[in-house]
Design brief:
7-stranded parallel β-sheet; globular
């Protein structure tokens, strides 16, 4: 055992004195002062561009730390409300190419800086919608979105479709199933592949929400792939979490995980028409009873239960009344702003974790010894905890000679 630990470089064994050395500090944002450009009634200036010149971690950004002409064009188009610029900007945010990620980050930084200074922005409402497959999420979103457009709202729908295991593209194509909504002049429907992410909510979804808001959309509907514990991630980026349920109860109700029930702000029982109307009413009663025993996540708001029919559009206006009441109440109490601040902080740490795992897996030093350590764990020679400690110390020590590991 001692020989194995020495060979793997365990920190508690002589000959392996590892110490952590910071891999470099990121400079504070430097501000490029430029005269503001006027676009319609909006004005903005590109006055926040991250300076990566002294960062050893991001040395590849030295030549690419400025917006290129295409990204500047997207910025101007977004602030003037161009749908094509919005579509291209979301595509840029979804890209995994390094040069695209750099430009996307610069674009988002400039937009966020603009948002903090713009005093005339209308308030926005972010709604996350989840539910089991077949419950009619797309039909509900189309009916609700069409109703809101006719009421004068600008509605953006971010629909996440299951990805093909072979091509990575979308299988269902929710956009093609919202034909009526896409015809509305105040709507924008964007389908994105889940790319294997459980629930489909990814880092680009948060960027897409901000892009839609900057482009002038005031109601953002985020649809997930299905229902499950992992999909509650959508609750961490929206103002209201809506659970759509089929007209069923008993065992079907128990199948909806408790973790989701604790996060909902509104439960809507869909397909409440024809012979299923009475079943839907019983299901709504069951949900009310289930929610009665839970603790509301917001003391001033008790989760509501409503029934509707996306097919006949019955009770769609009533459902919106509850949603708007929540929006108004949470905004007046300052809860929405506080919630968004907490969400931004939580997503920052989520991105830190993802980036650390990515760099760990791509480390050449880790790749060299990973096979041997895994074999020792498989054979029962060392514990999984000890193996993790060995790998982490190797990863940290490698930064002394290779800051980009």
């Amino acid at each position: 055992m001692l020989q194995r630990l020495v060979s793997f470089g365990h920190p508690n064994v002589p000959k392996s004195n590892f110490s952590f050395k910071p891999c470099g500090k990121l400079n504070q944002y430097s501000h490029l002062k430029k005269s503001p450009k006027i676009i319609g009634s909006r004005s903005f200036s590109l006055n926040i561009v991250p300076n990566y010149s002294n960062s050893s971690i991001l040395k590849n950004l030295n030549e690419a730390s400025k917006m290129n002409s295409n990204t500047k064009g997207l910025l101007e188009g977004l602030l003037s409300g161009k749908r094509t610029s919005l579509a291209q900007s979301i595509t840029l945010a979804e890209s995994s190419r390094e040069d695209h990620r750099i430009q996307a980050d610069l674009l988002m930084s400039s937009l966020l800086e603009w948002k903090t200074k713009e005093k005339t922005l209308k308030k926005t409402f972010r709604i996350g919608i989840s539910g089991p497959p077949g419950v009619g999420k797309s039909s509900f979103i189309e009916s609700m979105g069409t109703f809101l457009c006719k009421e004068g709202y600008k509605v953006a729908v971010l629909a996440v479709d299951p990805s093909s295991a072979r091509t990575g593209g979308s299988i269902l194509g929710d956009v093609t199933r919202m034909e009526e909504l896409t015809k509305q002049p105040g709507s924008y429907v964007r389908g994105s592949p889940s790319r294997g992410t459980l629930g489909g909510v990814t880092r680009s979804t948060t960027d897409a929400i901000i892009l839609c808001e900057v482009a002038g959309y005031d109601v953002i509907l985020v649809e997930t792939v299905g229902v499950g514990q992992s999909e509650t991630a959508v609750e961490g980026m929206t103002d209201m979490f809506l659970l759509l349920s089929p007209p069923a109860g008993g065992d079907e109700l128990q199948g909806i995980k408790k973790g989701i029930m604790e996060l909902v702000d509104l439960v809507v029982v869909n397909k409440a028409d024809g012979e299923l109307l009475s079943v839907a009413k019983r299901a709504a009663t069951d949900f009310k009873s289930a929610l009665h025993f839970g603790t509301p996540k917001t003391p001033s708001w008790i989760p509501q239960v409503k029934i509707c029919s996306a097919k006949t559009k019955e009770n769609i206006p009533e459902v919106w009344k509850v949603m708007k009441k929540y929006w108004t109440q949470m905004d007046e109490e300052g809860i929405l702003e506080m919630k968004r601040k907490n969400q931004r902080k939580a997503w920052m740490w989520k991105m830190v974790q993802d980036e650390l795992v990515k760099r760990f897996q791509n480390s050449d030093k880790i790749k060299e010894m990973l096979g041997g350590v895994q074999k020792e764990v498989e054979e029962g020679h060392i514990t999984a905890h000890l193996a993790a400690e060995i790998l982490m110390n190797k990863f940290i020590s490698s930064n002394k000679t290779d800051p980009n590991t």
